[in-house]
């Protein structure tokens, strides 16, 4: 009886106000309301009263405290309100249960890396429901500068997933705020963790939160994206990690990537086409835009360009990218360039004159990939971002967008055909050939100068040391003939300097003597890592010790020193990373580790394994395990 006459008060944030929607006072009702906060009692026998509180679908997410006002205020407790993809009226509503299982509930996923021709899946533990994660995600919202400058407006803004997604995109990188990760592409990560070493978001978010929000060193695009995915899923916003192969980073924002080479084939341009780039898609309604833009929205937490003065990017509807609607919020031109920009290449001659090489509109934005729903297959979502390559619609969209940026036309096709061919077996540790192919499809015999280089490259397109070259060879190519020139790549030449991405860029430059014309072919190859074998020993049951045998064969012609296995899995290793030093492993010998852990929950789980050593690192393996009762 007494409870029935009292008011309840809910509030979130430090300065709760009714008019901001961060505070609400209401009395008990008999049934739940669909449009306002409400509470009703369920009365079991005895002197216990259970309260059932219902929220409207459009109130701010965050930590709420609930008080009972009977003249005297009694704090009843606290709870965290999240976005709710199961609720049809919520801005993040997702219709299919299997989609929600994947994009909200799944704690493990795959991130695609490599090159267009060799796409490799790499396991990642998002771990959004691991102990402490939700509190850390809320802390991340509270550390954002918009909160410090106007806490009430910020907390009130948390009703809107567009706002929250933009805050996440700004807070995952630590440029201009107390965000989580520092980006580093220098190749030297001695005072931090090598970006390719991370395998889960849990360790990163814990390190950030446990050290007074000190920036975690170091991340690169997939790390930024994976941590953004963890935070999004934890807060109830459906999210997936997306990889684009041949992503452009357009420093002039003119939708045209201009490569500049000097006459020796050295790249002297500012723009870079990354071998791959990773960002996230978040699912939500866009009431702030015209109808038709609800659904997947791209946002990119890797710090590249400032938007409204802050390093963040998006969310922007995929549909706006596809149709070239570049005036739509947020940052459409930047994402558009990442998936669409045309590539034009110039040679700067020693006399300073610029000569255009045959540019290609096909270099950027192939194979936009994400993990499929409910399986470990790669799901190609390129069609959501762009019309088919080379289609009339694609050209129209590009022209519309280009018109927006006011640009000139590109050049014509060259006369001689040059390309690079490779063999299928390019394993790390092995020696192998790659080929320059020059075909003469003109009426005349040709004499040309050929330069063929191989150099180590990191995934963001930054070139490293040369590891093989044929310099200034003069070659006759008679009319109607095709010439093939091998370049041998040997482990002794590339082994010392190859980066953990294992990428080698091949550049072929052919200069016709008369008329003087430049042709170029470029190709990035990724060397194959050895596989990690994982074998379960015994039946996987909850709360029972389980062992797995892990092994990897050293493919190099020399020993690996300082070998480590790191093993981790949400619901499997109790939030910990299990690390084993296995010392030195000789050539063609196996590194072995039998790991023991006790699964803590039932269901489908993923055990991820990382192998590191002085010469081979960033090798990942995983095993899906069904934990039974
Ligand atoms: C990248 O890492 C190196 C070595 O650990 C460090 O000297 C450099 O300052 C870092 N760069 C950035 C941008 O933090
Ligand atoms: C070389 O040029 C001739 C004449 O145009 C053409 O018929 C032939 O197909 C070309 N060969 C190759 C391999 O492209």
From TrEMBL:
Annotated segments matching region Disordered: 1-26
Record carries keyword Hydrolase: yes
InterPro entries tied to this protein: Ig-like_fold, Ig_E-set, Papain-like_cys_pep_sf, Transglutaminase, Transglutaminase-like, Transglutaminase-like_sf, Transglutaminase_animal, Transglutaminase_AS
Subcellular location: Cell membrane; Chromosome; Cytoplasm, Cytosol; Mitochondrion
Residues reported in the UniProt entry to bind Ca(2+): 340, 342, 389, 394
Compositional bias ranges of the Polar residues kind: 1-10
Keywords from the named record: Acyltransferase, Calcium, Cell membrane, Chromosome, Cytoplasm, Extracellular matrix, GTP-binding, Hydrolase, Membrane, Metal-binding, Mitochondrion, Nucleotide-binding, Nucleus, Protease, Secreted, Transferase
Main location: membrane
Cofactor-binding details, from the entry: Binds 1 Ca(2+) ion per subunit.
GO molecular function, one term: protein-glutamine gamma-glutamyltransferase activity
Superkingdom of source: Eukaryota
Domain Transglutaminase-like, chain residue ranges per copy: 213-303
Family as reported in the entry's similarity comment: Belongs to the transglutaminase superfamily. Transglutaminase family.
Protein name: Protein-glutamine gamma-glutamyltransferase 2
High-level lineage: Eukaryota, Metazoa, Chordata, Craniata, Vertebrata
Gene this protein is translated from: TGM2
């Amino acid at each position: 009886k007494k409870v029935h006459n009292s008011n309840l008060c809910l509030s979130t944030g430090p300065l709760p106000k009714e008019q901001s929607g961060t505070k609400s006072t209401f009395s008990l009702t008999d049934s739940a309301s669909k449009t306002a906060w409400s509470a009703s009692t369920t009365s079991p026998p005895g002197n216990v009263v259970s309260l059932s509180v219902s929220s409207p679908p459009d109130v701010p997410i965050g930590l709420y405290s609930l008080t009972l006002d009977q003249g005297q205020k009694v704090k009843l407790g606290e709870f965290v309100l999240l976005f709710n993809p199961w609720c049809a009226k919520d801005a993040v509503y997702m219709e299919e249960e299997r989609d929600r299982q994947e994009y909200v509930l799944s704690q493990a996923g795959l991130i695609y890396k490599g090159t267009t021709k060799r796409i490799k899946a790499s396991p990642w533990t998002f771990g959004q429901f691991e102990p402490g994660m939700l509190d850390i995600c809320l802390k991340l919202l509270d550390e954002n500068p918009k909160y410090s400058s106007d806490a009430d407006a910020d907390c009130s803004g948390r009703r809107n997933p567009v706002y929250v997604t933009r805050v996440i995109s700004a807070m995952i990188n630590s440029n201009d705020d107390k965000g989580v990760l520092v980006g580093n592409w220098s190749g030297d990560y001695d005072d931090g963790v090598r970006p390719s070493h991370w395998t889960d978001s849990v360790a990163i978010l814990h390190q950030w939160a446990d050290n007074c929000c000190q920036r975690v060193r170091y991340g690169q695009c997939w790390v930024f994206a994976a941590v953004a995915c963890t935070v999004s899923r934890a807060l109830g916003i459906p999210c997936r990690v997306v990889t684009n192969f041949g992503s452009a980073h357009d420093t002039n924002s003119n939708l045209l990537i201009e490569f500049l080479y000097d006459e020796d084939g050295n790249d002297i341009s500012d723009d870079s086409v990354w071998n791959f780039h990773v960002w996230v898609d978040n699912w939500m309604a866009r009431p702030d835009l015209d109808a038709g833009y609800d659904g997947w929205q791209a946002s990119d937490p890797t710090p590249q360009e400032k938007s409204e003065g802050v390093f963040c990017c998006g969310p922007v509807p995929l549909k706006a990218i596809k149709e070239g609607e570049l005036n739509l919020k947020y940052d459409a031109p930047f994402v558009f360039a990442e998936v669409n920009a045309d590539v034009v290449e110039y040679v700067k001659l020693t006399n300073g004159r610029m000569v255009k090489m045959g540019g290609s509109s096909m270099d950027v934005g192939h194979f936009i990939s994400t993990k499929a729903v409910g399986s470990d297959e790669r799901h190609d979502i390129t069609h959501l971002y762009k019309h088919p390559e080379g289609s009339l619609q694609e050209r129209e969209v590009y022209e519309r967008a280009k018109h927006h940026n006011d640009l000139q036309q590109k050049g014509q096709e060259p006369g001689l055909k040059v390309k690079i061919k490779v063999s299928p077996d390019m394993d790390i540790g092995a020696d192998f050939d790659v080929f320059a192919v020059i075909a003469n499809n003109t009426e005349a015999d040709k004499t040309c100068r050929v330069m063929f280089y191989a150099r180590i490259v990191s995934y963001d397109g930054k070139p490293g040391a040369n590891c093989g070259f044929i310099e200034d060879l003069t070659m006759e190519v008679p009319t109607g003939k095709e010439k093939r020139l091998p370049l041998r790549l040997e482990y002794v030449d590339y082994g010392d300097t190859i980066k953990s991405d294992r990428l080698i860029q091949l550049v072929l430059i052919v200069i016709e003597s008369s008329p003087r014309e430049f042709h170029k072919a470029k190709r990035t190859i990724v060397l194959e890592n050895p596989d990690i074998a994982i074998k379960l020993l015994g039946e996987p049951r909850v709360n029972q010790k389980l062992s797995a045998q892990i092994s990897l064969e050293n493919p190099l012609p020399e020993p690996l020193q300082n070998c480590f296995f790191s093993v981790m899995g949400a619901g499997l290793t109790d939030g910990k990373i299990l690390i084993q030093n296995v010392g030195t492993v000789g050539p063609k010998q196996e590194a072995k580790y039998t790991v023991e852990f006790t699964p803590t929950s039932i269901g489908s789980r993923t055990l991820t394994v990382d192998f590191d050593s002085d010469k081979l690192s960033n090798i990942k393996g995983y095993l899906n395990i069904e934990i039974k009762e």
